[in-house]
Each structure stands twice: as C-alpha cells, then as structure tokens.
Write a structure and sequence with these properties.
This protein is mainly α. The chain has one domain. Helix content is 73%, strand content 0%. It is built from seven helices and no strands. The radius of gyration is 15 Å and the shape is globular. The chain starts with a helix and ends with a helix.
C-alpha cells in the first residue's frame, strides 16, 4: 500500500483515538500507524546506500523480507512493555492498524506469502 494511504487512514483513526483518549495517545497511535514502515527505509539505506524514499518503496514492494517492525516478536515485546507503560499500547495499536491495511493490500495483489510475520520463522525458512 502506498505510504500516502497509510497517512490518510492513520489520520482518520487517530482523530477517533483523540476523542476517546486525548491528544497524546492520538499522536502516539498516528506515529505507530505511519512510522512502522521505517524499517523498510532503514534496511534500504543500508542495503543500497541510497536515501531515496521513492526508490525504497519500489525496491521492497514485493520483496520477501522480514520487516522487523511488522513481526509478532516486536508486537509481543511492545505488548509486554505496554502493560507497564500505557502509551506504548497506543503505539502497538497504531502498528497493528497499519498491518491490517498491509494484509488487505497483499491479499488484493495475491501476495499471500510475501511477508514473514515472525523473525524466528523467517530465519528457519531462509537460513536452514
């Protein structure tokens, strides 16, 4: 899914979060729903030594790669942290909201196995 759609949908949802939980949690949710994709960009910079955000998007579009922030291990870690630091739960909620749109987009494009949901499972499948 194009980043602009993640921004649009994230803004809409964060407005709802604002009315339910205030500005701070709304902004944290928005941050989680948009900047979860920073892992794609960071990996692209290190792999290609290029800062182009647009090239990064097209490079990773259909790549089978374990996006760190899109994995269950990271979500579980954030859940554990969120049990003691409540705003982290809004970050996690934003990330999971983002992931719903990614899953919808991958299904629409028939990319059923395009993303590793677990770093552990990906490493077993690709390193062994």
């Amino acid at each position: 899914m194009l980043p602009k759609y993640h921004v649009y949908f994230g803004l809409i949802a964060s407005i709802m979060v604002f009315f339910l939980s205030g500005i701070q949690n709304s902004l944290i949710f928005l941050f989680g729903s948009i900047f979860i994709d920073a892992d794609h960009y960071i990996a692209y910079i290190f792999k290609k030594r290029d800062l182009s955000l647009k090239k990064s998007y097209y490079y990773w579009k259909d790549e089978h790669y374990p996006y760190d922030f899109h994995t269950i291990e990271i979500w579980f870690l954030l859940l554990i942290i969120g049990l003691t630091i409540k705003p982290v739960l809004f970050l996690l909620a934003g990330m999971l909201y983002h992931e719903l749109f990614d899953i919808y987009d991958m299904n629409k494009r028939k990319l059923y196995d395009a993303r590793a949901i677990s770093l552990f499972a990906w490493s077993i499948r690709n390193i062994s």
